[in-house]
Amino acid sequence: MPSTHFAGHTAKRAPQQTRGRERVSAILDACATLLANRGATQLTMHGLAKEANTSIGSLYHFFADKQAVLHALGVRHLESIAAITHKLQQVSETTWRELPAEGVIDYLMMPILRYIETHPDFMLMISSGFASGQLRAPELRKDIEHIYDHVLAIRMPTATDVQRGRRVKTLMGMPLGLLQMALENDAFKRELLLEEAPAALAAYLRSIELG
User: Which residues does the annotated region (Disordered) include (predicted)?
Assistant: First the structure.
């Protein structure tokens, strides 16, 4: 499980039975829906119970408070991102070396960008302005940085550690700026994340490789 930081959660024991796990999953699905549609400030335990079609007593059986539900939802998202990262770690050096710039971006970044675009609640949770405290996963972030550094080392073997580190930060930072724009412009959120971001990243990668 990824190490996470999420302000003020109170966890209870995870359910061991299938029925309990399904109920928890339904609660987290309900939390994601309400969070995306109404925001964290309008999220209540009674509203969660109603959306999940469960009793308030059942909800409190699994979660002590709203913040605990948000924490569990965040962990579920980060586990999904960690699974994407694990797949990237299995890509061969030959593949990374031979792909065109667009192919590298498609392998390296598009799975995460697609995940963010299809999970608007996660997009909110990782933004700095999230009302309940930004979701953070420093160890997962380091893993992603390590993969980016690994790929650049393969494709640009003459680059120095300092150059590579700067370029890794740029590759990670560019989508974050577009993510903020997507939060502010819902009408073309999908285009920003799935069209403009990969085009900009591929152009940047080609530029530094030619330079």
Answer: 1-21
